[in-house]
Design a protein that fits this description.
By secondary structure, this protein is of the alpha+beta class. It has eleven helices and nine strands. Bound molecules: 3-thiaglutaryl-CoA and flavin-adenine dinucleotide.
Length: 397
């Protein structure tokens, strides 16, 4: 890994080995084909079981449920390596690990855990996470129209979800819906249930090597055993987002490494006015900014992993790292594209693909501006999100 401050020395030998193995595997199996998959808007489904074999799916979960019992940094370096190839690959694994396996592990019954987690870890089952609805994903509470009505021993779910990663690949969907008391509850919904439909979203100009869908639930009947019994309220889905945002904070740096190294190599080999463009101050300034942002972001991500393993992680700390690392990667990808000149607009190089992907990454899992407002609320105790959002105690006054 590009590692200006030797952060690798802070990783354990096991974490370094996982990263090396992930890089070898992805360079052999994904890198040579990724531009074609992206151009053809194809997700490489043949890799799902391989991801399972490599331990990319739910690595932090205990071994008894199919995980590796691995550290937070292990999940971090796996996310880094996946996103160094493409944000769509990291997205697949983020959703499976943090948004499907995590809620089942944290809030599921013992029976749900034993039934689903090992199959999800092996990639035999694929899951998706339905929180966002069409009217405004930043405010999932006020905008949640999906309802769960109790009917005897069943629940009946009605509503729709928008922008759902893996929607058309999934065997199960974690659906967040409001019950008759207005509480947000989570359900494990088999996607072959009567009344469940996934409509693939086409014509995306970003995250093309990833499946994104609308989910429609028309009176979908599930037994009460499909309810995640361990959580009520918005903190259920938001706590899953904390896990996924942690992975994104690492993953974005993988994309930043990819565009930085591509731009550096190009700058050394491209000559204008009698010398390589790498000798020009304007080009060097862009490369230095990328390297500095990567270095600071990696220190942030590493410290976050420590806090996570120690059980001290605060959601606002994850917001800061997701916000800043993703925006740094997006800015770096734009700068790399610029250094590549005209070549930078083709898929023969990776920078524009990363740049377009990172527009999504900057938006999903809480937009850049929403994380600014989460942090603003944490720092000042004043809530600038809006009237329906609660005030928060100031953390750092
Ligand atoms: P708020 O009052 O702040 O919180 C409600 C309850 O939740 C708790 N909480 C959290 N718990 C754990 N982790 C977090 N990150 C948490 N944030 C809040 C909070 O303590 C409270 O608990 P309690 O016990 O007091 O009830 O609620 P709010 O309505 O004011 O929320 C505001 C805000 C902005 C924080 C929240 O709505 C938000 O995060 N919005 C952004 C939504 C978002 O990120 N959506 C992502 C959808 S999934 C996705 O994009 C997947 S892409 C995956 C891929 O392809 O990689
Ligand atoms: P909106 O919430 O409507 O926001 C529009 C704009 O208004 C943004 O710029 C936002 O920052 C700004 N804004 C909103 N509120 C405020 C405010 N209070 N103050 C200032 N500015 C504000 N969701 C899932 O549940 N599961 C998934 O698997 C999933 N995968 C996704 C995959 C892709 C490719 C994409 C694009 C999205 C995915 N999402 C998923 C949804 C994603 O989380 C939402 O797009 C995101 O949360 C933003 O919601 P929105 O698009 O409705 O924008």
């Amino acid at each position: 890994m590009f590692d200006f401050y030797q952060v690798s020395d802070l990783l354990s030998p096991e974490e370094r080995e996982v990263q090396r193995a992930a890089r070898r595997f992805l360079e052999a199996e994904a890198l040579p084909h990724i531009a074609k998959w992206w151009e053809e808007a194809e997700f490489p489904t043949h890799l799902i079981r391989r991801f399972g074999e490599m331990g990319f799916l739910g690595p932090s979960l205990p071994t008894e449920y199919g995980g590796l019992g691995a550290s937070a940094a292990t999940y971090g370096v796996v996310s880094y390596e996946l996103e160094r190839i493409d944000s769509g690959l990291r997205s697949f694994c983020s959703v499976q690990s943090s948004l499907v396996m995590y809620p089942i592990w944290a809030y599921g019954s013992e029976e749900q855990k034993r039934f689903y987690l090992p199959k999800l870890a092996r990639g035999e089952l694929v899951g998706c996470f339905g929180l966002t609805e069409a009217d405004g994903g930043s405010d999932p509470d006020s905008n949640m129209k999906t309802r769960a009505r109790r009917d005897g021993d069943d629940y009946v779910l009605s509503g729709s979800k928008m922008w759902i990663t893996n929607g058309n690949l999934a065997h199960i969907a974690i659906i967040w819906a409001k019950d008759e008391e207005g509480e947000v509850r989570g359900f494990i919904v088999p996607t072959d249930s009567k009344g469940f439909r996934a409509n693939k979203i086409h014509h995306k100009a970003s995250l093309r090597a990833s499946v994104t869908s609308e989910l429609v639930l028309e009176e979908v009947r599930v037994p009460k055993s499909a309810l995640l019994p361990g959580v009520k309220g918005l903190k259920g889905p938001l706590s899953c987002l904390t896990q996924a945002r942690f992975g994104i904070a690492w993953g974005a740096l993988g994309a930043l490494e990819a565009v930085y190294t591509e731009a550096l190599e190009f700058a050394k080999s491209r000559s204008t006015f009698g010398a390589p463009i790498a000798r020009r101050q304007l080009v060097q300034e862009k490369l230095v900014r990328m390297a500095a942002d990567h270095t600071k972001g990696l220190l942030l991500a590493w410290r976050l992993a420590q806090l996570k393993d120690q059980g001290k992680l605060k959601p606002a700390q994850v917001s800061l790292a997701k916000r800043d690392n993703v925006r740094a990667a997006l800015n770096g990808a734009r700068a790399a594209r610029e250094i590549l000149g005209g070549s930078g607009i083709t898929l023969e190089y990776h920078s524009i693909r990363h740049m377009l992907n990172l527009e999504t990454v900057d938006t999903y899992e809480g937009t850049h501006d929403i994380h600014t407002l989460i942090l603003g609320r944490e720092l000042t105790g004043e809530n600038a999100l809006g009237e329906s959002s609660k005030p928060k105690e100031a953390a750092l006054r």
